[in-house]
Amino acid sequence: MHQRHAVTEVLWVFFKLGLTSFGGPIAHLGYFRSELVTRRRWLDEKAYGDLIALCQFLPGPASSQVGIALGMLRAGLLGGLSAWIGFTLPSATALILFAYGVGAFNGKVESGWLHGLKVVAVAVVAQAVWGMAKAFCPDRPRITLTLVAAIGTLAWPTSYGQIAIIAGGALIGWKFLSAEAGTPSSLPLRLTIGRNIAVGAWAVFFGLLIALPILTKLVPIPLLAVIDSFYRAGSLVFGGGHVVLPLLQAQVVPPGWISDHLFLAGYGAAQAVPGPLFTFAAYLGTLMTPRPNGWQGGLICLVTIFLPSFLFVIGALPFWETLRTKAAMQATLKGVNATVVGLLLAALYRPVWTSAILSPGDFGLVLAAFGLLVFWKIPPWLVVVLSALGAMAMSTFHMDK
User: Fold this and answer.
1) Contacts of residue 13, Cβ cutoff 8 Å, sequence gap at least 6
2) What is the Cα–Cα distance from 55 to 250, expressed in whole angstroms?
3) Residues 285-327: pLDDT tens digits?
4) For residue 141, how far is the Cα from the chain centroid?
């Protein structure tokens, strides 16, 4: 495929995903799988599982990093950039506009259509759990590992707990699944990134992590302080978007850059838009007092918080492709992949199910959406639209009664 065509394809595919991927990072992985593994066959199930395993170990937003990696595998470095732009642009634009007209929703964020988007996320995550369980849990040991991981995640629902559970799955896989290891992915990752570029990415990452705090002390410019805060937030947070929120609050509210009220209003709006929660940075950059603010400040904070994710993926992919074909790593990945299915299963219950299924009607809507996705093979974006309309109809019916 011609490079320019591949880049354009990646941009368009991820822009459509960015418009329709509601439900948070776990649901995003389900949307990616449905569109890129099942429908377009950019890579096979095992290679996709290996990418998820890698990004679960990296700091930052796992679903965005998986998207960046998928774009790079399809169309090189420009493909990774296109995937990020496409997936991030809809929610970032919506949050910047919301920042300009903050309060426009007037407390009506929990409307019927939004509830429908939460409901369809249940079906998307259930579809991902169903498909990945069939691929990664074909025997009793791995089914057991999945169930134990799910129970452990529900009992210890923190980012540290998630990291410990994944590490435990890796150890169990390396120790007890090694006899079955050695089967590489049927489709190797098509990498155009060399190891020299990967090493350079790691050098840039650590260089900025060390240099930015020093520069902020030596040159007390507010813009440098903002860049330092958002870069560290994107660099040092495990567990995804929700975990970064308290860290960002500690960075931007006490200095008086933004009020706690406006911070919480933006957090509520971020729940109502598709795409990655890290785009909350665009809202903050638009409203914060240090200049440049407005849309320019929003773009600066958005790029800064995602920059570590690019450097992580560029730095890890070339070494990951070699490592994942080794027998010991194959065994380790079998344990990690089974554990990741357990994390998805736990997330299917909390927060996805508990925040969306509030009535028998909601459960009926989930069953319909699941059937359309799994058995009728309806495109996810269309199922999202139909579910939103269905929830609006139910909401109107209850109000009329």
Assistant:
1) 35, 36, 40, 86
2) 26
3) 999 988 888 999 999 999 999 999 999 999 999 888 778 778 8
4) 28
Mean pLDDT computed over 10-21: 94
Instruction: With cut-offs at 50, 70 and 90, classify the pLDDT of residue 243.
Output: low
CA angle, corner 214, sides to 209 and 216, nearest 5? 100
Give the closest residue to 39 by CA, choosing from 172, 131, 156, 139.
Answer: 131
For every residue of 58-77, DSSP letters joined together read: SSS-HHHHHHHHHHHHHHHH
367-390 pLDDT tens trace: 999 999 889 988 777 887 888 888
Buried b (16+ CB within 10 A) or exposed e, 317-340: bbebbebbbeeebbbbbbbbbbbb
Residue 149 token pair = 């991981």
Cis peptide bond prior to 220, omega within 30° of 0: no
Q: Where are the alpha helices (DSSP H) in 324-379?
A: 327-347, 354-356, 360-374
- The Cα–Cα gap between 129 and 18 comes to 21
Give residue 37's pLDDT band: very low, low, confident or very high (50, 70, 90). very high
Sign for the pseudo-dihedral over CA of 47, 48, 51, 56: negative
- HEC per residue, 139-174: CHHHHHHHHHHHHHHHHCCCHHHHHHHHHHHHHHHH
Structure-token match 């927060």, residue found: 351
pLDDT, average across residues 33-46 = 90
In DSSP notation, 193-226 reads --HHHHHHHHHHHHHHHHHHHHHHHHS--HHHHH
End-to-end CA distance of the chain: 56
Whether 93 and 335 have beta carbons less than 8 Å apart is answered as no
Q: How many helices (H) and strands (E) does the chain have?
A: 17, 0
Task: Please give the structure tokens belonging to residue 64.
Answer: 């965005």
Query: Within a 13 Å sphere around the CA of 243, how many CA atoms are in the beta-carbon half?
Result: 20
pLDDT band of residue 1 (cuts 50, 70, 90) is low
